[in-house]
Hints:
This protein has one helix and ten strands.
Amino acid sequence: MKRIYLLMLLMLAASTFLNAQFSKGSKELSLSGSIGSYTYSQKSPGGTTSSKDYQYFTVYLSPGYYIVDGLSFEPEVAFYFSKDNTPAQYYLANISYTAKIGEGKTGLFFRAGYGVGNSMIFPGNNDVPLPMTKSLDVKIINAGAGLKLLINANVLARLELNYRVQSYSRESSYYSPWGSSSWSYDYTYSNISLIFGFAFLIP
Length: 203
């Protein structure tokens, strides 16, 4: 019987901490990352060429402030590192909503936002010098949904299914004694990824 009472108290405490975590005025600091490697090959009439093994690493930092219960503003900054390239970065402004699931230790969240960056960030861009632009000319649309799992009173594990669209346009010109011409390039890259990290309660 004592064990049952103890379990009930622990569940109540977890529920209280989780509710407090998502209430108006509370603050979070989320830290996530991804790491991996890739290769690619290309076939042509002249033969087949293959790349070496490339490694990449991305780190995401996102503070959050709850404007009202469950609804938070979450700016985000991310840095993309890959071998033989200058690190690229982007900045997002997100709105997120988090709801506690039942009486347990889990919260369900949804978020959406818009931002800018100095490069289209994806693993296969080692052939493109980073950053792609000296200005923040890359436009980013961000959306995600996931779970927050209470580890203790101050730490949450965070798992997100993320969808992101990046777009970038540039113009090129050609001049010669016989005339000139110009043309534009429009790039769009969309991807779905899993992002894992932790959220820390800020007193």
